[in-house]
Structure formats: C-alpha cells, structure tokens
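Quick check before the chapter quiz. The format below is the same one you will see on the exam, so make sure you can read both the input and the output lines.
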Amino acid sequence: MENIKTNTGGVNREYGRSIPEKWTFVLLHLGIVLFCAWLTFLDGWSVIGSVFDLSWSFVDQDRAVVLFVCVLIYWIRHTVTVFYLLARKVEWGEVFGLLSFMALFEIGLLLVGGGAFRDYTIDFGLLDFVALSLLLSGSYLNSYSEIQRKWWKKNSQNKGKCYTEGLFQYSMHINYFGDFVLFTGWCLFTYNYWTLLLPLSMAYSFIAFHIPALDHHLAERYGEKFKDYAIITKRFIPFVY
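Here is the expected output.
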C-alpha cells in the first residue's frame, strides 16, 4: 500500500495498523460507556453523593435512558470505524485527546439531559422526534459514506484513484457534515440550548481547520482529479457550501 507521509489536520495520514493505540482507544471509550451506564441504571449518583456530599440526581430518568442509548450507539460506531474503516495510523496524542472530548460530551450531555441540574421532567414531544431524526440521519451520513468508500477502495481497479461517488458526490466531506448533524440532534435532545455550542464549534473546526488541511493533502495525492472534483462539489453542507 502506498505510504503517505503527510501529517495534516491534527492527525497522522500515514497508513498503519496502530494496534495498541486502537485497542486502548476503544476499551477506554468503553469505560466511559460503562460509567454512563452506572450513572443511568445503577443509581451511581447516590453512591457519589454518599462519598462527596453531592445531591444531584436524574429527575428525568426516561430521557437519561435514551441519552445512554445514544452513548452506546456512538461507541459501536466508533469501534467499527477504528477497526474496520480506519486505515491510517492512530497516534497516542489523538487517542487521549479524543477520549477527553468524548468523556466531556457523552457524560456532560447525559447529565444535562437527564436533569442532574434541574428539578423537573420534560415530556417527550416533537422536538425529541426532530432531535433523534437528526442523530440517526447524521450517523447514517457519517458511517455509511465511509463504508461506501471502503467498499470502493477494496476493488483493485480503483487503487490510487480519488473517490467521488456515493454520498461523497453531494459533499466533499459528507462524513464531517454527518457528525455536525448527529451532534446537533444529540444536543437538542437535552433541551439545553447552550449545548448547541458543541456542534457549532465542531462545524467551525471542520471548516476552518480540518477541511482545508485534508483538502491540501488530497490535492497533493490525487492532483487534477481532486481539483476537478472540488470545483463541482460542495465542501461541507450538500447543495449549500
């Protein structure tokens, strides 16, 4: 396999297996999932409260359960990505940096949405349907676009070619857009609109940092084919930008 020696967008673009890093990444992420399960189902707050004199609790248990399912689905997708879809190297800095981010939003959104900081429940309504639809749609855009590209690249006839088909014909970075959509839905489900700063900051990071760096890498690798693709395809939001 061709060795790509660029390191752009905060990640290593070289191909490599990185087995210790990937197993550490997935297993520590599982630890975050188990901690969320403890808080949600095993009355973890009572144990914490007895030790540290805290009085928080999940007053909105049903919403907390749904948010935990979101955490579990995200871990499953993450595991598939790391072990099946990801062909490049994963470095230790990326592992622990992303784990810190995952712990922040997975535990944080569970606490906020589950009612750890309020004393009332919120009935399920139309906004919840919209939020979960966005979460599922975003997960589809992110994961299935990557799976389509993986299957295409497995064909030896496509070796060294730039992939421009499937969902990537609608956006050069449809996988990033999927992340933005799913996190928007996840945050809306908490009914705390301050949490929307999370997907907005992610979108800014994608547009200002990750996409330009990745585009530079792809232009160097695929040349005119990528430049032609970039001329006719939106960069982030399909049909818009």
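If your answer matched, good. Residues 127-241 form one domain.
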